[in-house]
Amino acid sequence: MGGMDMQYVWRYDSPLGQITMASDGDGLTGLWFEGQKYFAPTLAAGGYRQCVVPVFKLVCEWLDCYFGGTEPCFTLPLHLAGTPFRMAVWEVLREIPYGRVTTYKRVAEHVAARYGAKVSVRAVGGAVGHNPVSIIVPCHRVIGSDGWLTGYAGGIDRKVSLLECEGVDMNGLKW
User: Fold this and answer.
1) 22: domain CATH number?
2) Which of 60, 73, 139, 165 is catalytic?
3) Which of 23, 87, 96, 148 lies at 20 to 30 Å from 141 by C-alpha?
4) Is 165 a catalytic residue?
């Protein structure tokens, strides 16, 4: 749908603020809350156009469903780009069930089990924090082993709201 380097962007007004989404024309390459940490690093300066490509319509439907309090019943075509380690972490994040949380330590254990290497919790935290597709790759479902809701690039208030939207039992969680 365009040159290899062309990126497309579109905006979505969510209950938690404006979201910018990016696509290569076929799959979703990014989704960020406006002003979040690590905002839109995949968008080359000026190398994108604002227009609706078909995947954005699907993403908007998915987000409408999600923010309506229902687990979306379809998956989206994601075109993630990152180091092999980050890709492995993001793959594990996508397996965290809707309405559930896990810890950075458990994510590290899953990645280590798959790839046969020791994985540090700190390295997992860095990969989680640099997740380019917020909400859909559910990094907000990862918490500290002690129950603290730490390290969400979109802000802890948004992390709390996303977990509440999914019906997560917030008893015992701290922020």
Assistant:
1) 3.30.160
2) 139
3) 23
4) no
